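Thread title: Can someone regenerate the structure for this chain?

I was given the following input by a collaborator and told the matching structure tokens would be attached. They weren't. Posting the sequence so someone can regenerate them.
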Amino acid sequence: MLNMRQLARAVFRLAAQIESPADSSGPRSLFDPRHLARAGLLTARFGSEVLEGLWKGPEAAIGYVELDNRVRAFHLFEGEVARLESEPAALPPAVAIRNAQERLGPDPAVWASEGIGYEWFERCRRAGRSTRGVFGGSEDDVPDGSWTVLHTGMGMALAEAWLEGIPSAGAPGLLKGRLEEHLQLCREAARTGYAELAFEPLGLVTRLLREDLVPSFGEQFDRIGSRWSDLFWHGVGRGLYFLPANLVPRRSAPWAGLAMCRAEPPTEAARRNALAGFGWAITLVNLSSPSVVESFLGHHLEGEDLSHPVAQGVLSALLLWHETTRESRELRQFLGHVAAPERRALWQRVVRAPFEENTQARGSSTALPSGARVSELFRYR
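Best answer:
Regenerated them for you:
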């Protein structure tokens, strides 16, 4: 029987196939079903965009730009997983990442590298090998900054596999034990200092695949420790951004998912982390389209409060991308974005100035020295 995990991956793979007809596995004729499906998707999407843009103004098209960016992120992640699955032998992460960088470029390769972390863990699990120390060895040739996304990708695979063994919330004592088991699995699989990065995706995966478990998980993590609770709810916020119900363009601006970040978590700390996770996700997905983030901040950021969880989520996402790509062209273009006149002060105060202050404080080319320090970007502070 097809489980939720398999169904989600099948949907993402279909999206990847529809969006990429030009690769070697693409349609072989004009009447290939994938070609026709893609043509129908593009016609409906951009036809609606034009009509809505003419009727409501240029910002009405923001939702369609954002939809394209989300599908692109899914495609880069899942496409890399599919590519590696077809390889007869597992490529070392360093080799796979460098291949992706050469093939795709530095910015798209970040999403692909997360897929590499996912598939590397899955290969070990499917082969029946121990996942202890999956990334525990010393691989000095892994490109700078890539350890972070390798661990978040691995964390998604670990969470999906682990959740299959959780049929329901069950008794609180038993559930707390199972969650501590998951924490231990993250510690064992991750490199020293990176366990938090492998753990945070549990919130994302649980919210997407097992919504029924989110409240009980959150309650137990409050007992286990505030650090783990913060990371869990940050992941939940990311999951709410990718929730299928929130993908429809008409629900994007204003963003309905942000209201869910305020309504679902039971405590103020949980709400702040969910909001930060949502702001983080929308920033990373739309780095190539800063007008989407501008519109989002204009609708949802009250004033120019730098301590607001959304503002912190945006800044943390930019800092992570900076450390991962060494200030890529996409990031420079995002920071140099010229916002609408009424939002220029907001963009300067919330986006550009905090980023410049933080990067100058730690040195423009100095990498974060450990996963433990990077993990602070994955929670509201």
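Residues 4-25+32-378 form one domain.
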